[in-house]
Amino acid sequence: xxxxxxxxxxxxxxxxxxxxxxxxxxxxxxxxxxxxxxxxxxxxxxxxxxxxxxxxxxxxxxxxxxxxxxxxxxxxxxxxxxxxxxxxxxxxxxxxxxxxxxxxxxxxxxxxxxxxxxxxxxxxxxxxxxxxxxxxxxxxxxxxxxxxxxxxxxxxxxxxxxxxxxxxxxxxxxxxxxxxxxxxxxxx
Length: 188
Prior knowledge:
It is built from six helices and six strands. By secondary structure, it is an alpha+beta fold. The protein has a domain at 52-138: 2-Layer Sandwich (Alpha-Beta Plaits). Strands 2-3-1-4-5-6 form a six-stranded antiparallel β-sheet, with helices on one face. It is elongated and about 80 Å long. 17% of the residues are buried. Belongs to the MESD family. Keywords: Chaperone, Endoplasmic reticulum, Signal, Wnt signaling pathway. Its main location: endoplasmic reticulum. It holds the Pfam family Mesd. One of its GO terms (molecular function) is low-density lipoprotein particle receptor binding.
């Protein structure tokens, strides 16, 4: 039997053990669980339009945290970007969208959504703003009203991703050719 210890004599290890005992018997509600431990929401396949791949993404991102990048057009300072995106965030808040905003550059911001199911509605709002150059959502770049004519290519994929893949393929081929152990094995 464990010897009873006065609560005033508890050290950090004793407190941690006590907390574990309390949590072991606790029933944690599903909403209080961290996002990665929550069961995924059931998907209603009757709402999926096969002609629109975005409808599938909307349903799979429902209830999950999602981030989108927003670029402000022109050449704004970080303070101007802060003011413009603050106005957009306020408008979204007034429309009952829970959005957090983080400035990541002089003309870029991240909008973090608690429920990714609303991301495409928010994207539609943002690209209709005069100072929005583009919105990047799930790897797709959507040009905004503030984009230049050369940038207005609908749903262009980021070119950096394909470029990186080509560079990796080139590097892996050159490594195979330069491997001396392989050349010696072939000569033997």
